[in-house]
Records
---
Amino acid sequence: MRKILVLGAGGQIGTDLVATLREQHGAENVIASDLKTPESVSGQGPYEKLDATDAGALREVTQRYEIGTIYHLVAMLSATAEKMPEKGWQLNMDTLFHVLNLAREGLIQKVFWPSSIAAFGPTTPKQNTPQFTVMDPGTVYGISKLSGELWCQYYHQQYGVDVRSIRYPGLISYAGAPGGGTTDYAIDIFHQALAGEAFESFLGENRALPMMYMPDAIRATIALMEAPAEKVKIRTSYNVTALSFTPPELGAAIQKEIPGFTYSCKPDERDSIAAGWPQAIDDSRAREDWGWQPEYDLPAMVKDMLAKLRQKKSR
Ligand SMILES: NC(=O)c1ccc[n+]([C@@H]2O[C@H](COP(=O)([O-])OP(=O)(O)OC[C@H]3O[C@@H](n4cnc5c(N)ncnc54)[C@H](O)[C@@H]3O)[C@@H](O)[C@H]2O)c1
């Protein structure tokens, strides 16, 4: 079997994705890589410290391990990229081109690259946001995601590159720490609640956003990657979703499990970023084309998240 390389494996998604891919394919067949050397992925199987902006180093690792598939998870996320727009653009675009070019040359056969709900913008319909609609992102992160989607489609159409993509909503997980996104509040709130502390959300009380629990996100990612090529009809990026909630709705769901928990909202600049994003997404094309179906609703996600964080703390 040709091996799998995960770039940005030490991040929020990589931590869970690498663990699942290693369970499915055997640890020796999944090479984790990142700028840093996180224990979560480096101790459990092959690991390469790799700067994904270095095209030569990326090529060398790809050839040495006989890589067939790359999951490209390196990016500067929304809130961080707004603080350094040019660096964010460069990192997000340069690394995507390096990976797409390896596929164009035939060195690898398949690429996964995630887009985001940040690719939508202020004039995109906010309810039941369609797969094909106005996209006018107002952040450098969103601009890089929309541009990346179009480049993926271009490489597929012009060069036959098998690149597949999902527009992830905000992702909630217990294993990896969040990486500077606008939806990080929905993870921090669980840690504060378990610590017995009051929580202040940096998003406003009416700020509903599409969200997903990480186990669903990993299932969606792997289902898309395993789908027969002819079923993957969209080569920009697929809408996928599971949940949509405001900070008070999440707070109330946690309160049901931890009755003394209190929360409030004090919006900061991240609320303005989220104001340009959809509130709920139509993912019917992903359901029709490759059978996407989420498993976790809000109460199930909250119960599982609290249980897993309690287990983690007691270890
Ligand atoms: N987490 C979310 O809620 C979410 C939502 C939508 C889309 N996404 C997308 O999914 C992907 C992964 O997101 P994440 O939340 O895991 O991000 P993250 O910030 O947690 O992880 C990114 C990882 O990339 C690494 N990295 C940064 N620069 C690098 C470089 N030059 N070379 C190698 N590694 C480098 C970082 O060390 C980090 O471990 C990104 O493309 C992101 O835009 C994430």
---
Amino acid sequence: MSNGGNAKILAQHFTPPAVAQLVWDAVRTLAGKELGAGARVIDPAAGAGALLGVVGRAYQTTGIEIDAGLAEQGRSQADRFYTGDGLLGTLPEVADETFDCVLANPPFGKLGPMLPLLGADVSSRLAQRFELLDGQKQMRSFPVESLFVERALQLTRPAGWMALILPEGFLANARRQDVRDWLLARAEVRAVVALPGAFNKVQTALVVLRRSKPLTRPKARLIAPVGKRPSEQYAQHVRLLLGSSARRAPEAALLSVGQRALCAQRWDPRFWQGRAAVRRLAGRLRLVPLGEYICHLTYGPIVTGSRPQHVEAGVPVIRQGNIAETGLDERPLLCVVPAGAHDPPRSRVRPGDLLLSRSGAGALGRNRLAVYLGSKPANVGCFVDLIRLEGLNPFYAWFFLKTRLGREQIAAYANGVGTPNISFGEIRALQIAALPSTYQDGLERRYREQVWPLHCRRERADIRAEAERRFRAIVGDLEDYLQTRTSA
Ligand SMILES: C[S@@+](CC[C@H](N)C(=O)[O-])C[C@H]1O[C@@H](n2cnc3c(N)ncnc32)[C@H](O)[C@@H]1O
């Protein structure tokens, strides 16, 4: 079968060699003697054999790839390499429960577009082979990676191992909770290693599992980078953490989580690290959900079928793009008809309102927030949340959400596949340290005196850079204060 024209449908994103090596090193380290020489290793969506290519000749390797051209390339990487369907195919010497280890970076996305490539009578054959499709009304929108997870489990012998590269959505989306719980009932999660930047369009993680019955299971090791952008050292530090009892290396941090705790929960390391950081802080400081201070929470109007048109002397609308690092960039504001559909009274801003980009990797993903300092009527766009606070200084809330603690809480909600989003419930649940109001007001004063005057002249690059430096200094000082301070 040649699928040369279907590269997109088949989600052909190949594993870079360094990541493939990390996948194999991770599962071998965790499995120890259980994955010794002679073990049988299979990749049911093998591409050109990137994962099998690092396994080494001491093992018996098998690859399956639906695209004949890729399979041809992969043949030299494995002892056996079939052109065929890794989900439904019946292939010689590929029997269920016979492999010591399954490696896979399966295709991600909806099953629907792939169905025509899987042959006749595909729906009923899929329904017969996959438990996860039981009761699924919308087979076409079912995520194909989940089927490959079930296929991996079918191929693995009891007490055998799986090392799977999966999209963050599999680990983080509430809609995939039933699949995670289904898997957890059949396998133990030994490690989840965030793989930031390994693939261009989607955040992924390596999930290492061992097929086993529940109970008496060791803890899962969840690993994520320490900083925002990991360097080349990250993979090395992941290896170090997997192979020792250390909890932290300069570039990577490990958290051990019990298998039971993973049940009905997310599995992504960032989420757990965010929770752990909040818990550590809660041991020293009183934390309050932001919701307790919110007296008004809304977003701009969503007007179906009508894009806002600029009118001279209209009411300005603050959109995501107007939220710069150091405050609102009011120069290119679109103005709409006053009191029209794009200017409802409920989302008119007031001085002191905290504005948050609620969607998108470039906005929410970058934690874009600002406090409105204007005095004229203005409104917000549909992707901007307006948060009106009482009893909490909005500048302090802004700076707190820019600290690592705030960022990680937001990131924990905002990840997954597709556009990141944060809901009203999630905004209300963000935990804020209740610091003395004199301290909060001091931060506002510092911003107004040191940052705002430069922010207003930010069209000059050097001035903008200095404003950003001063802004970061405020956030950095707050971070230090939070590190050392204990509630009376
Ligand atoms: C994300 S790529 C990864 C390839 C390879 N494992 C790697 O790590 O570089 C997924 C591969 O699965 C193949 N594929 C998609 N559906 C398949 C199926 N039903 N059976 C076998 N291979 C399939 C695609 O053609 C693609 O090469």
---
Amino acid sequence: MVTDRSEARIAEIYDLLETVMDPGMPILSIVDLGMVRSVEAEPATVVTLTPTYIGCAATVDIVNRVRTTLCESGFGPVRVEIRHAPPWSSDWVSERGRALMRAGGIAPPPARGCGPSSPACPACGGARVDEISAHGASPCMSLWRCLDCKEPFGAFKCH
Ligand SMILES: [Zn+2]
């Protein structure tokens, strides 16, 4: 049963989850990355997460930090459930998450679907780019260089 009280608690839990950063990309929270599938507040706190792909995020670390963060704010005991189906998609990255990536000099994944298109340069917006390496700073990024401003940049892989 969803009551006004549980709705308010759910909103508070989401606010707290926005402070849990992704270990692979510490400028983004697990909410920004679209990893939080659902939150229940009553009768117990249950958070359902879909991790980004293996190597991109240390799932155990995230689960521990979700538990600690919520317990410290009085929402314990906390159950964290991991759901792998459907698999996480880069389509789930929020608008805020995309803006944070751009501000951090990272090209976000395309908003809808994975096409053959190249990322735009996050520094100058240029479309003339070259892929330097399929493996960037983390397994979820590839490395590119802009042919206009010559800046190298990471792009979040689409999947
Ligand atoms: Zn550029």
---
Amino acid sequence: MNPRKLRLAIVGLGNMGSAHMMNILSGKVPNVELTAVCDVRPDRLAFAEEKAPTVARFTDFDALLSSGLCEAILIATPHYFHPPMAIAAFEAGLHVLTEKPAGVRVSDVRRMNEAADRSGRVFGIMFNQRTGELFQKARAMVQNGTLGNPRRLTWIITNWYRTDAYYKSGDWRGSYSGEGGGVLLNQAPHNLDLLQWIFGMPISLTAACTAGKYHAVEVEDEAILTMEYENGATAQFITTTGEYPGTNRLEIVGDRGKIVLEGGVLRHFDNGFSVDEHIKTADTASCGVKPTVTEYTASAPERAHAGVLEDFAEAILTGTPLVADGREGIAMLTLANAAYLSSWEGRKVSLPLSDADAARFDALLAERAAASETNAAASASSPTGEISPRWQIKWD
Ligand SMILES: NC(=O)c1ccc[n+]([C@@H]2O[C@H](COP(=O)([O-])OP(=O)(O)OC[C@H]3O[C@@H](n4cnc5c(N)ncnc54)[C@H](O)[C@@H]3O)[C@@H](O)[C@H]2O)c1
């Protein structure tokens, strides 16, 4: 590790930003020095002053950018702010680590990615669940051919339960003007990102997103996506914040077997033969061969948020790889934008998202945002900086 520390500022000291701050102050990110923080709320800056009196404090984001106090920023503000803040930071010559999702609209994120390319600075995104060992193993097994020809991915990820009190904890939450979407944009981005990281991007998507089904919110709190892939494979993705108890079950099937991730265990069912071939060549009506089953569990806790930040700093200091390049944030957002568009217009959406569909999505979202009951980006909560277990990989 480089003996020099990255001089970092955190923008947005709410639930997540405060937790990032406390991770750094408690020594969990040894290659980062927190030099400044920025929030529009004086009480959040008072919290920072109490925890870290020597760290500079800003209410004005532009003043932070021109302060010369940091070489990188971590953006932990509500989603709509991510692209404009990242673009301004790149133009000021800073490196950027943004919270998920990359933004609300693919059109904004395209501009953000172009700004990142122009700047030549390091750009990361906080997809902390990519540090989960079992997801890394699943990805390797799909990509190295262990499962054979990919056929199907099905993810039931319904353990993102939230109450009305949660949605009321910030004015921006649960509205089209403040948040831009619901479970697909706030809770399930991790899973949508892992879906595409492990299984690739589909060529079309159809969705049913139900707004305010269980909660007093404008946005969807249940979404059911079906996707098709170039090779004929399919994916199904079911998520909600309204079910309890929830399920986290990821099943990936190839023609040589399948894997099932559930309860913190990855089970690999290895056929030992290709089903594609067996279907064509067997002279029996079915198949009596029992697959070999191997179970894997994680050998160490996930490195989570502190690990993503540590690797971001190391990428700047010594050029090592990122857990997630910021430009990759557009993939899960493409799935979310396409899901809304499909649901709002009742049609299948082709991917990659065409410019016309991206513009159509922006127009339909703008109509909804204009009718929103709130336009505030404010948050009323007073987080203590603890990492909530609900932000880590949860199997129950
Ligand atoms: N990676 C994860 O596991 C994870 C977990 C929680 C939240 N998040 C993401 O973090 C982001 C913030 O979520 P949160 O729950 O911390 O929200 P929050 O409402 O608790 O905090 C947001 C903070 O940003 C501040 N803010 C708003 N506008 C600002 C501006 N213009 N300049 C400076 N500060 C401003 C607010 O005052 C508030 O303190 C969201 O995009 C969310 O998706 C990620």
